[in-house]
Inverse folding.
């Protein structure tokens, strides 16, 4: 009979303790699920970031290549001197014109071509500046994202 009295005396004490243990086990399961979800999300974001960073690097390399190609194309124009045969041909053409109206027409043609080339050069310089600006912004954005990610990753480690 003493064992029944002892068992009955422990029953009210064990029930709340068992309930507390079950609640703690469930809470542990929930916390582990949240941790696994957070790890998965971090991995997903890291993958997206790496993909975007690779895309930015690729775009940057393409832009640098385009700039190098344009510089190569502009190099002969910047240091251009007229071919002696072309210069001689132009001098002959100008000398052959005795009419001032014809000379004015040649001058107007030359000035028009000069203006067209100047505008083309200005447009190319503006395009170059715009590309440089957008690449600088993209690099700054990538650095900001990377810095924020590093800060977020370092916070849980310090807890």
């Amino acid at each position: 009979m003493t064992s029944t009295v002892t068992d009955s005396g422990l029953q009210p004490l064990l029930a709340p303790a068992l309930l507390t243990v079950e609640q703690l086990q469930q809470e542990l399961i929930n916390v582990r699920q949240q941790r696994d979800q957070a790890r998965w999300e971090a991995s997903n974001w890291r993958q997206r970031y790496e993909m975007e960073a690779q895309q930015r690097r690729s775009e940057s390399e393409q832009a640098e290549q385009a700039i190098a190609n344009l510089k190569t194309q502009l190099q002969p124009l910047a240091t251009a001197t007229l071919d002696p045969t072309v210069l001689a041909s132009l001098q002959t053409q100008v000398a052959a014109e005795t009419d001032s109206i014809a000379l004015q027409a040649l001058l107007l043609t030359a000035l028009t071509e000069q203006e067209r080339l100047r505008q083309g050069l200005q447009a190319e310089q503006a395009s170059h500046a715009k590309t440089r600006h957008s690449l600088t912004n993209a690099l700054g954005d990538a650095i900001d994202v990377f810095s924020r990610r590093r800060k977020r990753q370092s916070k849980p480690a310090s807890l």
Summary: The chain has one domain: 2-158.
